[in-house]
Amino acid sequence: MKNAVGREIPQSIPGLNKIRPFQGAFAYQPTGRLAGPKTPVHVPGKEKLLKSLDQAIDATGLRDGMTISFHHHFRNGDYVMKMVMDAIARKGIKDLTITPSSLSAVQDCIIPYLEQGVITAIETTGIREQLGNLVSSGRLAKPAIIRTHGGRARAIESGETHIDVAFIGAPTCDTYGNINGVDGPSACGSLGYPMVDAAYADQVVAITDHLVPHPLYPISIPQTLVDFIVVVDKIGDPNGIATGSLRISNNPKELVISKYAAQVMEYSGYFQDNFSLQLGSGGASLSAAKFIKEKMHQQGIAASFGVGGITGVMVEMHEQGLIKKLIDVQTFDTPSIKSLKEHPLHVEISASFYANPHTRGPIVNNVDFVILSATEVDLDFNVNVLTGSNGKLMGAPGGHPDTAAGSKVAIIVLPLIRGRRPMIQDRVNTVVTPGETVDVIVTDYGVAVNPRRKDLLDHLRDSSLPIMEIEELQRIAYKMTGIPAPPPPTADEVVAVVEYRDGSIIDVIRKCK
């Protein structure tokens, strides 16, 4: 079957029950009902605080074939997944599906459990490093499912993904199960991703290294959603959880791209008082803030809110009155964690509130501007952020497709050439964000506007930007690098499916030869 972005999708894929090809960003309008969480009963006097992870696993009734979840707010400082999987493996439990909100390099430590059959399936929003190589080489028993942040929340709330046990790393937890992420030695800020897991999982285990008396305040995940609590020595490494502060780049190429992106915003027709925005954590996205701030000061305007993964750059803009509210699903650095704890107009939200397309309105639908990075783009404005030129998994859709679909102006920033390879391809290796939701491509050599957005093109003609067709940008790149070699051949075996945010399949990833 060929889907709406021209990708061949097999009619059946071993290990997957449902094959629904992508038909367009807003084509699928479900008419069913949301799944309901299990009805729990916790009688007075029943103890939630257990002595060990082994005891908690026994208490949940975890057994072969079940699905467990984790969150990735600890990033490369995470200790929780390994300690949980170690305990599960000791008990001889097999054939588990894990559905972490994302996987970082630190999770390479669980590879032995995939090889031993403890884990046989993965559903996540990103796979990198050696885990990415393992999946790309076809060594996982079932094809991995790669979702967006909004798509993961949708899958859980619709019942498409049923979580038997959610293991939640809790930076601070009280003795009755209230959790927050802003206190304790492993503070990570917002707990936007496990909020959905806690609400829909059959059993929830909070794992903490900072137990406090009941009741805790503030509360991110309430006691009404937590079954058991386990105290351990450390749930994470603060140095891997948050950087000191993500800063603006000094790279000349990134600064040119950032300046162009800010100019696109300025002349778009939407850059006015109370606009809203999301800035990524990449160098060019963060650096754009420098030029955006200058233009906001010059025009005397402020943003109504900034949303997404919050960084110190956005916190500075908030403190300067340039962004009135910060809406936080993931907190990236130390200044942002401090801000979430102290500033009343810096609030945390769940991944569903952020980007779930099958609700009465995720906040991405009210974003005016989003600046997003890319691995590569193609002549149809499709974007890849998941695989490298060799076809191997090395990234994450995250909220990329969600914010591109919801925003009024989706700006993709990337260098025209990266490592002697042109970044504008005839066809991207893997389609993650469809071109119909991408409005502008910004490179260090020029800016291309999606022909669908004639309104933007009319506005941007009044700027000094080097506007050109995307084909011209590609020709400039080819003059410098030559025509790139085609990607290496792949086998027929599908090792991962890439879901669009509505659950349809936008692309598949085949086994690397």
List the helices and strands and how they pair.
Layout: E1 49-50, H1 53-60, E2 67-69, H2 80-90, E3 96-98, H3 111-115, E4 119-124, H4 129-136, E5 144-146, H5 149-158, E6 165-170, E7 172-174, E8 179-180, H6 194-200, E9 203-208, E10 211-212, E11 228-231, H7 238-241, H8 252-267, E12 276-279, H9 283-299, E13 303-310, H10 312-319, E14 323-331, H11 334-342, E15 346-348, H12 351-355, E16 369-373, E17 376-378, E18 383-384, H13 400-406, E19 409-413, E20 417-418, E21 421-422, E22 424-425, E23 440-442, E24 447-449, H14 454-460, H15 470-481, E25 490-499, E26 505-512
Helix pairs in contact: 8-9
Describe this structure in words.
The protein has 513 residues and is of the alpha/beta class. The chain has 15 helices and 26 strands. It has 2 domains: 190 residues, Glutaconate Coenzyme A-transferase, CATH 3.40.1080; 244 residues, Glutaconate Coenzyme A-transferase, CATH 3.40.1080.10. The protein is 26% helix and 21% strand. The strands form 5 sheets. Strands 1-11-9-6-2-3-4-5-25-26 form a 10-stranded mixed β-sheet, sandwiched between helices. The protein has an 8-stranded mixed β-sheet with strand order 15-14-13-12-16-19-23-24, with helices on both faces. The longest helix is centred in the middle third of the chain and has 17 residues. The two termini are 23 Å apart.
